[in-house]
Design brief:
The complex is a heterodimer. By secondary structure, chain A is mainly α. Chain A has 2 domains: 328 residues, ABC transporter involved in vitamin B12 uptake, BtuC; 38 residues. Chain A has 15 helices and no strands. In chain A, helix 3 runs antiparallel to helix 11 and helix 4 runs parallel beside helix 6. Chain A is globular. Chain A starts with 7 loop residues before the first helix and ends with a helix. Chain B is mostly helical. In chain B, 71% of the residues lie in helices and 0% in strands. The longest helix of chain B is centred in the N-terminal third of the chain and has 31 residues. The radius of gyration of chain B is 20 Å and the shape is globular. The N and C termini of chain B lie far apart (69 Å). The chains are: A mainly alpha, B mainly alpha. Chains A and B meet through helix 6, helix 12, helix 14 and helix 15 of A and helix 4, helix 10 and helix 12 of B.
Chain lengths: 375, 318
Amino acid sequence: MVVQKNNFSVALFSVLFGLIVGAIIMLVFGYNPISGYIALISSAFGSMQDIGGVLTQMTPLILTALGFTVASTAGFFNIGLSGQALAGWVGAVWYALSFPDMPAFVMIPSALILGTALGAVAGLIPGWLRAQFGASEVIVTIMMNYILLFLGNNILQNTMAKSIKESAETTKQVGHNASLQLKWLTDLTQGSSVSTGIFIALIMIVVVWFVMKKTTLGFEITAVGLNADAAKYAGVSAKRTAVVAMAISGGLAGLAGTIEGLGNYLNFFTQNSSPSIGFDGMAVALLGGGSYLGILGAAALFSVLKIGGLGMPMSSGVPFELVDIVIASIIFFVGANYLIRLIQKRIKAMDEKAAAQGAAKKSAKVASKQVKGGE
Amino acid sequence: MSLVAILTLVVSSTLVYSAPLIFTSIGGTFSERSGVVNVGLEGIMGMGAFASVVFNLTFANTFGTLTPWLGLVAGAIVGLVFSLLHAVATVTLRADHIISGTVINLMAPALGVFLIKVIYGKGQTEPISQDFGYANVPVLDKIPFIGPIFFEKTSAPAWLAIIVAVLSWYIIFKTKFGLRLRSVGENPQAADTLGLNVARLRYSGVMISGVLGGVGGAVVAQSISLNYSVGTIVGQGFVAMAAMIFGRWNPLGAMGASLFFGLSQSLAVVGAQLPGLKNVPSIWLQIAPYVLTIVVLVFFFGKTRAPKADGVNYIKAA
């Protein structure tokens, strides 16, 4: 099991410690940590546009983190989220550009389904290979990240019709019939690229929570993850469950990619490496500690740091990479929660000792009074 | 192009691309044999690449042609220090190995670029002046036919990597230390009962992976990318991890898998110069190594078995 349950205080301590590590690094390299963090906060919450940016950043991370969690509940380590997201992104944008005249109420649902399905297929393949042949899903998903990256770029550069491309490296923007952006939302956030995607992501948290916690399928996935042999003896098909879990995982990543395509960028362009939303989603899932509400909180925190970090070099001179160091440190402390629990235990023991001493003093006083009274 | 010329081109570029993978995948083997899963190889390579480039840029005038070799040492030391983070987290603080490895991977590029910006004031370094280039292996390059193909204008780090692979195989399977390391990875409780220090052995496993991963990154930086930026190490660590699993946690197997990956990566690069492959669309050459890996894995290897206690924290009874 990769994802463990953590209590809330561990997460809080981790965030605090992570920020302290960041502050120390800023101090060591001669930056002022206070102005650094003020710059971070003000560029994450300074305007409605910044808040829109945070929500845009959160959207795919929620979905890829959900995908990672589903796979790891079934006992799989899905490093392929990036590739699966890419499959959804390329597929959805290509489809949307190919049918510019389709009405929005047909186009948007079908594009979302297509992107999700492509991601699901990309997740299903390693799941099936693992179930059928015992091939390590870690290797297969790593390899598929590369395959999908090269295929995606090749489709853009060599397969797509010239008429839907801006240049050799970029497609045209998708039309209004396929865009997930909403006018009122764009106006509200002063032209940020936040879209309906954020609502889809929030709904998916509830849907995935429901499927995993309240349905037979979710129970089977959890059972296989905890003990595949026991699940088998209880009549669960471990193979089928493995394939389904990886397909759900990939589907969520594919949806994340689709929303990046139709909600955030509105196009597809040559990628130099697998999209980072896959790896970042993994980090969000780990930070969220396996709880679905935790994923929402972790995605929000992650995005505030990322968007806030963009403003740090301008106003305080601190390189943007500092926020990644802070994020990594936070996750380090979440992982090493034994340390935090140990500290908490120490504090508690000290409190108890102090309380016991206080009580001892009190009782001693009372006793002496009684003795006095007795005289 | 003559046959010898073709073979020379393919072999030398294969060795160039294989060398970092061989070092790093063997590093991973040491770590996982001791029972610590190391997803952080990618990050360790990144720090090794960072250190070697900074060293190379700073001391190129002082050490001349020796610089890249000393750069490897710099990469090894920084890789070692960085891997301690993983060792402390997993062995001492009982962190989940995947979480800790992910931290390493998130931390390395951020820290590397942060420091580069602090030192040089921009996000990537200048190209280094002293790189590995191509070297001849003395004596062996005089062998007819084989000499020119394998030992003339070849990658020196690759031959070092091959020697390290053989040495590592000997250490893991033929020495007392190796036996102990493996026993800790298979059944830490039994090893503990016999008086072995589980924590110390696991620390050494992870630290060896830090050294070799750092060297691997330094080789990439000083023979392929020739500078350091956020794009220097993108995915080589994960491929090395795949090579380790593919090689069944055996240094020689890891070396074989790394050579295979190196060959297919080099075909994607030099394929255009080769007769017969010239007319194949480049996309097929690009994805071939990865598709082939999956096919080989599925049909010829099937189930791979990790060391039994790989990724399982050992909590000593008080």
